[in-house]
Amino acid sequence: MKFRKLTALFLAGAMTLSLTACGGSTSDKSSTVAKEEPKAENATETQEAVAEEAADVSDAAVVGEEGDEKLVIWTLAKDLETFAEHYVETHDVQVETVVIEPADYATKVQTALNGGQKEPDIIVGEPQMLEDFYDAGYFEDLNQAPYNAQDYEGQIVDYVWKVGQDAEGIQRAISYQITPAGVYYRRDIAKEVFGTDDPEEIGKLFKDYATILDTAKTLKDKGYRIFASDAEINYFSGDSAWVVDGELNVNQARLDYMDLVVDLYQKDYTAYANQWSTPWYQAMAGEVPILTADIQSYADDSVNVWDAEQFAEATKEMEKTQVFAFGLPSWGVLTLRDNVGETSGNWGVCAGPAYGFGGGTFIGISALSEHKQAAWDFLKWVTLDEETAEWWIEKSEGDTVSLVSVLDQHKDDENPVYGNEKMYAFWLKQAEGIDYSKVTRYDKVINDAWGQACTAVKQGEKSKEEALGEFYDIIESTYPDITVNR
Amino acid sequence: MSGIGYKIKKGLLYLMLLLLALACILPFWLMIVNSTRSGVEITHSFSFIPGSSLVDNWKQLFGYVNLFRGLGNSLKVAIPATLCTAYFSAVTGYAMAMYKFKGNKLLFKIIIIFMMIPAQLSLIGFYNLCQKLHLVDTYIPLIVPAIASPGIVFFLRQYVQATLHKNLLEAARIDGASEFMIFHKIVLPIMAPGIATMSIGAFIGNWNAYLVPLILLNSPKKMTLPVMISTLNAATDLQKNQGAIYLGVAISVIPILIVFAFCSKYIISSITSGSVKE
To answer: Which residue range(s) make up the domain with A241?
Structure first.
């Protein structure tokens, strides 16, 4: 019967559906990274909670005394929930934290606020989302009474303060953390090869792209590799915004960056690891095999870079090396701490070829909120309160806060993982140099397309002209408003 | 049917089926294995042998979310939605197949056209509607729209045409049954295998629904399972959470397996059944 075929088809469809659905929720690979130790305090919840959803304040997400004013936070990182739990210990409010997956956060906020949803009192954004959120008017103007945020200018690290302003310079959001980028390097290798491990001196080895290539060559001659991947300079790349006055801005610095990536790759200066892959993490702990370009691009699949055992077996015969440096924002402090193993204490951090930053959660008040005063109290407590900042440094085991006075107090703190370097002083100095105006709403798409172009050129798939042409095509079709001058 | 050629053919067939079965089972096995390994192990390598971090992952997972509440919420949405889909689609499909009325063909065409429009397109309008009706953060907008499922109506209409013979209805009418009685007492049992088949699909679809619940549900305690598990991705310590995410997904698959186990006999019989044999 014809009908059987139909049934079979539908069944097959149903099954693939269930498969893809499962795959979808799990395959979201790590593009963000470990920043903070999670807490497991809410494990007390019991099964009976399933039975009834009725009035139930013991829920993990709602904290505080029942009957008090309720503040609702929509966030994309767990941090604010930790803040909220601490907040209600000293304040008479209830706080409900809704954590939404970063990839879907903008969709959720846009749909809800466009639909006139009054529920969230506090909303947040990452730098690349902020401009859209500002334009859509989701964030309350913090410069007006009773907030008068302008009075607090100078208490927060400058670039963070500026990222929280819209095009007219009105304060819309504030962040409690800073995320300047730095170069993390191995002190023992530095001493052996360059005779010093002083961050000032090592910073000079990364001061511009030509010097980086020289440094890379020196290291290679001694049997080391400067970076594990060729993407380590990414956070420092570019000296101006991608889009200036509605025009795509591909200036010399961008092209130089592309050349640097190509040179690092083609001259065999890296260990050919991909960022966030097994060998990349392993390189933090010491010796790794030098892979080939083909393995990195998966053209040669004899080595499985995602399986530690197979990886060790397949690369047994390969030449080994140690990697000198990683380029990561300040939250990399925690990533390295968890992965360095026996090289702990042998690390240092120095400045890169330019100032840069990566990520950060900016907090603002929803323009539609009905509890604006309570929301402002919370916002102030999270971002502008010294005690909170002190507590957060301890709680997060070393996150870098944005409050200048607290960074000052901690400027003599020494971090044993990094050879007792004074990290907070360093990050503050890096943060002061950051040019906030480089951030645009187009960054994510343009950076991805640029990364693709760099990859195509370094692997010799395309000539530089071809890759650039394709890059322009992508930008033109994604953002018809942007003028592209080829 | 002779000798060696037949055996080779059959051997090949089994080999292919075996490979296919392996390909289907492998992701599930990996998911189960990964739910017993730590996040660092998962990002550093991949393995077919279970690890030893099940308890840690469990603690981690329940430290973040109350998975049982998520299960309960998902059941609260998926079961009524599936029942709505099943019953109303059966009524519609039966009526369209068996009754002659004006506009039947036109309606059928409209249904086919609506099958082709992706639901995501109307999301913002749908949200605004729910907002105006004060239905945001309730389960109603997740359940009630399930009444209209063009794809399933289409399927059941074809199913009725193929399995139900008009003679049966005429016999019932002669015996004095009302039209609704005919549907409930005679047609529904005959359609049961087809309805069960479609219900499995609908249940899985509702169970795994992510985007609409994400947009519509605001309170964490009302979140359905997929939305709840996705919040683990939002947590800052992503590497550490990988194992917990796998464990959450593994647990969330269990109800689907149960539903499938109960309904699989209907699936098989739906392929072989019919009221009047030709």
So the answer is: 181-356+438-478
